[in-house]
Protein backbone atom coordinates (compact mmCIF):
# COMPACT_ATOMS: atom_id res chain seq x y z
CA UNK A 1 0.00 0.00 0.00
CA UNK A 2 1.16 3.53 -0.76
CA UNK A 3 0.86 6.54 1.52
CA UNK A 4 -1.87 7.84 -0.79
CA UNK A 5 -3.80 4.60 -0.28
CA UNK A 6 -3.41 4.99 3.48
CA UNK A 7 -4.71 8.57 3.51
CA UNK A 8 -7.56 8.12 1.03
CA UNK A 9 -10.06 7.43 3.83
CA UNK A 10 -9.30 8.18 7.48
CA UNK A 11 -11.95 6.90 9.88
CA UNK A 12 -12.85 8.10 13.34
CA UNK A 13 -15.57 6.92 15.73
CA UNK A 14 -18.25 9.23 14.26
CA UNK A 15 -16.88 10.75 11.06
CA UNK A 16 -14.46 9.97 8.26
CA UNK A 17 -12.27 12.03 6.00
CA UNK A 18 -12.29 10.86 2.39
CA UNK A 19 -10.38 12.43 -0.47
CA UNK A 20 -12.41 14.75 -2.68
CA UNK A 21 -13.58 13.47 -6.06
CA UNK A 22 -14.91 15.49 -9.01
CA UNK A 23 -18.55 14.56 -8.21
CA UNK A 24 -18.06 16.39 -4.87
CA UNK A 25 -17.79 19.70 -6.74
CA UNK A 26 -21.48 20.51 -6.22
CA UNK A 27 -21.26 20.01 -2.48
CA UNK A 28 -18.04 22.03 -2.19
CA UNK A 29 -19.41 24.76 -4.43
CA UNK A 30 -22.48 24.98 -2.21
CA UNK A 31 -20.30 25.43 0.87
CA UNK A 32 -18.08 28.01 -0.83
CA UNK A 33 -20.98 30.24 -1.92
CA UNK A 34 -23.04 29.89 1.27
CA UNK A 35 -22.61 33.01 3.44
CA UNK A 36 -23.23 30.88 6.55
CA UNK A 37 -19.98 29.03 5.84
CA UNK A 38 -17.74 31.24 3.68
CA UNK A 39 -17.31 34.28 5.91
CA UNK A 40 -13.78 33.37 7.00
CA UNK A 41 -12.56 31.78 3.75
CA UNK A 42 -10.77 33.34 0.82
CA UNK A 43 -13.26 34.83 -1.61
CA UNK A 44 -14.63 32.57 -4.34
CA UNK A 45 -16.43 34.04 -7.35
CA UNK A 46 -16.39 31.01 -9.62
CA UNK A 47 -19.00 28.69 -11.04
CA UNK A 48 -19.68 25.03 -10.41
CA UNK A 49 -17.60 24.26 -13.51
CA UNK A 50 -14.72 26.31 -12.05
CA UNK A 51 -14.92 24.16 -8.92
CA UNK A 52 -14.76 20.99 -11.04
CA UNK A 53 -11.72 22.31 -12.92
CA UNK A 54 -10.06 23.23 -9.62
CA UNK A 55 -10.60 19.67 -8.35
CA UNK A 56 -9.16 18.22 -11.57
CA UNK A 57 -5.99 20.29 -11.08
CA UNK A 58 -5.94 19.51 -7.37
CA UNK A 59 -5.89 15.76 -8.12
CA UNK A 60 -2.44 16.27 -9.71
CA UNK A 61 -1.16 17.81 -6.45
CA UNK A 62 -2.81 15.00 -4.51
CA UNK A 63 -1.00 12.36 -6.60
CA UNK A 64 2.30 14.03 -5.61
CA UNK A 65 1.22 14.22 -1.92
CA UNK A 66 1.51 18.01 -2.06
CA UNK A 67 -2.10 18.55 -1.01
CA UNK A 68 -4.96 16.49 0.43
CA UNK A 69 -8.53 17.77 0.23
CA UNK A 70 -11.11 15.87 2.21
CA UNK A 71 -14.85 15.64 2.45
CA UNK A 72 -15.86 15.17 6.07
CA UNK A 73 -18.59 12.53 6.26
CA UNK A 74 -20.76 11.25 9.08
CA UNK A 75 -20.72 7.51 9.75
CA UNK A 76 -23.90 7.19 7.64
CA UNK A 77 -22.09 8.68 4.62
CA UNK A 78 -23.75 12.12 4.72
CA UNK A 79 -21.23 14.89 3.90
CA UNK A 80 -20.91 17.41 6.71
CA UNK A 81 -17.85 19.46 5.77
CA UNK A 82 -14.47 19.77 4.14
CA UNK A 83 -10.88 20.25 5.22
CA UNK A 84 -7.60 20.59 3.34
CA UNK A 85 -3.95 19.81 4.02
CA UNK A 86 -1.75 21.84 1.68
CA UNK A 87 1.77 23.15 1.19
CA UNK A 88 2.85 19.71 2.31
CA UNK A 89 6.61 19.97 2.50
CA UNK A 90 7.97 17.41 4.96
CA UNK A 91 8.33 17.78 7.83
CA UNK A 92 5.79 20.66 7.80
CA UNK A 93 2.28 20.98 6.42
CA UNK A 94 -0.47 23.57 6.53
CA UNK A 95 -4.15 22.94 6.94
CA UNK A 96 -7.33 24.92 6.59
CA UNK A 97 -10.32 25.48 4.29
CA UNK A 98 -12.11 23.86 7.23
CA UNK A 99 -15.88 23.99 7.03
CA UNK A 100 -18.41 21.97 9.00
CA UNK A 101 -22.03 22.35 7.95
CA UNK A 102 -25.40 21.89 9.67
CA UNK A 103 -25.22 18.10 9.16
CA UNK A 104 -22.18 17.72 11.41
CA UNK A 105 -22.48 15.48 14.47
CA UNK A 106 -21.55 16.72 17.92
CA UNK A 107 -17.80 16.96 18.47
CA UNK A 108 -17.17 17.05 14.69
CA UNK A 109 -14.63 19.86 15.10
CA UNK A 110 -12.59 17.89 17.63
CA UNK A 111 -12.84 14.70 15.61
CA UNK A 112 -12.02 16.24 12.23
CA UNK A 113 -9.00 18.10 13.66
CA UNK A 114 -7.81 14.90 15.35
CA UNK A 115 -8.17 13.00 12.07
CA UNK A 116 -6.20 15.72 10.25
CA UNK A 117 -3.38 15.36 12.76
CA UNK A 118 -3.52 11.55 12.68
CA UNK A 119 -3.24 11.71 8.89
CA UNK A 120 -0.30 14.10 8.88
CA UNK A 121 1.62 12.96 11.95
CA UNK A 122 0.84 9.24 12.20
CA UNK A 123 0.47 8.24 8.55
CA UNK A 124 2.63 10.78 6.71
CA UNK A 125 5.29 11.29 9.39
CA UNK A 126 5.05 15.09 9.55
CA UNK A 127 6.50 16.96 12.53
CA UNK A 128 4.58 20.22 12.62
CA UNK A 129 1.34 21.81 11.43
CA UNK A 130 1.04 25.47 10.49
CA UNK A 131 -2.24 27.30 9.97
CA UNK A 132 -3.82 30.70 10.20
CA UNK A 133 -7.21 31.82 11.43
CA UNK A 134 -9.01 35.05 10.62
CA UNK A 135 -9.16 37.34 13.66
CA UNK A 136 -12.93 37.55 13.35
CA UNK A 137 -13.35 33.77 13.53
CA UNK A 138 -13.67 33.66 17.31
CA UNK A 139 -15.00 30.10 17.60
CA UNK A 140 -12.17 28.63 15.54
CA UNK A 141 -9.55 30.68 17.39
CA UNK A 142 -10.94 29.43 20.70
CA UNK A 143 -10.96 25.85 19.43
CA UNK A 144 -7.31 25.89 18.33
CA UNK A 145 -6.19 27.52 21.57
CA UNK A 146 -8.03 24.87 23.63
CA UNK A 147 -6.52 22.16 21.42
CA UNK A 148 -3.06 23.44 22.37
CA UNK A 149 -1.93 25.26 19.23
CA UNK A 150 0.85 27.80 19.73
CA UNK A 151 0.48 31.34 18.37
CA UNK A 152 3.51 32.34 16.33
CA UNK A 153 2.58 35.79 15.01
CA UNK A 154 -0.30 37.90 13.78
CA UNK A 155 -1.24 40.35 11.07
CA UNK A 156 -4.10 42.77 10.93
CA UNK A 157 -6.25 40.03 9.37
CA UNK A 158 -4.92 36.68 10.66
CA UNK A 159 -3.42 34.92 13.66
CA UNK A 160 -0.82 32.28 12.80
CA UNK A 161 -0.31 29.05 14.73
CA UNK A 162 1.85 25.99 14.84
CA UNK A 163 1.04 22.64 16.36
CA UNK A 164 3.88 20.17 16.90
CA UNK A 165 3.66 16.42 16.59
CA UNK A 166 4.97 16.06 20.16
CA UNK A 167 1.95 17.99 21.50
CA UNK A 168 -0.44 15.79 19.54
CA UNK A 169 1.30 12.64 20.73
CA UNK A 170 0.92 13.72 24.35
CA UNK A 171 -2.79 14.63 23.92
CA UNK A 172 -4.00 12.07 21.34
CA UNK A 173 -5.25 9.47 23.83
CA UNK A 174 -7.37 12.01 25.70
CA UNK A 175 -8.87 13.29 22.42
CA UNK A 176 -9.63 9.75 21.24
CA UNK A 177 -11.09 8.86 24.63
CA UNK A 178 -13.46 11.83 24.41
CA UNK A 179 -14.50 10.81 20.92
CA UNK A 180 -14.88 7.07 21.44
CA UNK A 181 -16.89 7.71 24.61
CA UNK A 182 -19.31 9.73 22.53
CA UNK A 183 -21.35 8.20 19.75
CA UNK A 184 -23.20 10.55 17.41
CA UNK A 185 -25.92 7.94 16.88
CA UNK A 186 -26.75 7.63 20.58
Automatic annotation (TrEMBL):
<dbReference type="GO" id="GO:0016747">
    <property type="term" value="F:acyltransferase activity, transferring groups other than amino-acyl groups"/>
</dbReference>
<dbReference type="Pfam" id="PF13302">
    <property type="entry name" value="Acetyltransf_3"/>
</dbReference>
<protein>
    <submittedName>
        <fullName>GNAT family N-acetyltransferase</fullName>
    </submittedName>
</protein>
<dbReference type="InterPro" id="IPR016181">
    <property type="entry name" value="Acyl_CoA_acyltransferase"/>
</dbReference>
<feature type="domain" description="N-acetyltransferase">
    <location>
        <begin position="16"/>
        <end position="149"/>
    </location>
</feature>
<dbReference type="InterPro" id="IPR000182">
    <property type="entry name" value="GNAT_dom"/>
</dbReference>
